[in-house]
Design brief:
Elements lengths: L7 E3 L2 E3 L3 E3 L14 H9 L5 E8 L16 H16 L4 E6 L17 E2 L8 E6 L2 E6 L4 E2 L5 H17 L4 E5 L5 H6 L14 H4 L1 H14 L4 E5 L13 H12 L6 E5 L18 H10 L5 E5 L4 H9 L4 E4 L1 H5 L3 H7 L29
Parallel strand pairs: 3-4, 3-14, 4-5, 5-10, 6-9, 10-11, 11-12, 12-13, 13-14
Antiparallel strand pairs: 1-2, 7-8
Helix pairs in contact: 1-2, 3-6, 7-8
Bound molecules: 2-Phenylacrylic acid.
């Protein structure tokens, strides 16, 4: 039976162990520009089998929170290059998470102060995060406008450019963010998608934009360097759908021929109950995996949400290939070594999760080497 500390292949990515640093929004990139401090933070965590960066905007329109990074400009690519070089210098592997927030944004964060975009003009009952005069605050998201059908190819193109930029910046690959009620998830789930064109209504239509993005991204950089994160039942950011099982099984089957490096699942409510139910019955992740494998899906299966070591090992025994840890990686740069040695874990400090500087970011202590 594989252990968390055994190497594994995920598409083209050869990973030293099965412990993944989950994507974590930290709001420390003023003007959407990756910084030297971010290079320090990620390189401190390079012993993870794989680092997935914080969610990173593919375009200005895709941005929904203050001080999150982007990957659409040459300057951003140059900033990320310093991050990937620092991680690679310590022998790590790192992919960038590609993000378009859709309606989870605020006019103040959008180009020209315009309304955010969404499948339908339905405001999300959720908050975003603004920083005004140096002071951070959670505020209601703005009312979005519905995207015209002829705008969608441009969004697919923005993902494609971001994937190309990622490789130019030295990333080992990308993870498309299809989870947590952001743009692609807004299209997937019926609560946020009331369209009556080819991108709304039946499952095949609601999955269309996600699948177009995955086709474009894999055409640009190869399936073996592309992962996807999904969250079939999360209510995060006002996401809802009464029938997640057939929706996500359809998506998984359609993705199988793309030979992705991995699929990454947030099980249950993001950052909350693992047994959260949406719809009529508990979500069956084993059936989802069987649907993917049955259709020829070869990549790694990554699980996430509230894992500790015991649950992670159980999950590997049950057929997962990779386990992503979030909060534990915030507080423990050397999480792999600590788990291997059964060492005590540092406690994450919530007050420094979002925004700020080095405190609560790069100053968590590592154990002495050995
Ligand atoms: C926490 C705060 C802001 C954004 C996600 C990108 O939930 C996020 C996020 C998390 O996927």
């Amino acid at each position: 039976m594989p252990s968390l500390f055994d190497p594994v292949q995920a598409g083209d990515l050869h990973l030293a162990n099965r412990i993944v640093m989950a994507p974590l929004t930290r709001n420390r990139a003023p003007l959407a520009q990756p910084t030297a401090l971010m290079a320090t933070y990620y390189s401190q965590r390079a012993t993870a089998g794989l680092i997935v960066t914080e969610a990173t905007a593919i375009s200005h329109q895709g941005q929904g929170y203050a001080d999150v990074p982007g990957i659409w400009s040459a300057a951003q690519v140059a900033g990320w290059k310093k991050v990937t070089e620092a991680v690679h210098a310590r022998g790590g592997k790192i992919v960038v998470q590609l993000w378009h927030v859709g309606r989870v944004s605020h006019n103040d964060l959008q180009p020209g102060g315009q309304a955010p975009v969404a499948p339908s003009a339905i405001t999300a009952k959720t908050k975003t995060y603004l920083i005004k005069d140096g002071v951070g605050a959670f505020v209601d998201t703005s009312a979005p406008r519905a995207l015209a059908i002829d705008e969608l190819p441009g969004i697919v193109q923005d993902y494609r450019r971001a994937a190309r930029n990622a490789i130019e910046a030295g990333f080992d690959g990308v993870e498309v963010h299809g989870a947590n009620g952001y743009l692609l998830d807004q299209f997937l789930r019926s609560g946020s998608n009331h369209r009556s064109d080819a991108y709304g209504g039946p499952i095949e239509n609601r999955a269309r934009l996600l699948l177009e993005v995955m086709h474009a991204t894999t055409a640009e950089i190869g399936g073996g360097r592309t992962g996807l994160r999904l969250s079939p039942v999360t209510p995060a950011n006002d996401a809802s759908d009464p029938q997640p099982q057939p929706l996500f099984e359809y998506v998984a089957k359609q993705l199988a021929p793309l030979d992705l490096a991995y699929l990454h699942f947030i099980e249950g409510q993001t950052g909350g109950a693992r047994d959260y139910v949406q719809g009529e019955r508990p979500f069956d992740y084993a059936a989802l995996r069987a649907a993917w494998r049955g259709a020829g899906g070869q990549g790694a299966w990554m699980v996430n949400n509230g894992y500790d070591q015991a649950l992670a090992e159980q999950s590997l025994a049950d057929g997962a290939d990779l386990v992503a840890f979030g909060k534990l990686f915030i507080a423990n740069p050397d999480l792999v070594q600590r788990l291997r040695n059964g060492a005590a874990l540092n406690t994450p400090d919530r007050s420094t999760f979002y925004g700020g500087g080095a405190r609560g970011y790069t100053d968590y202590p590592a154990l002495a080497p050995g």
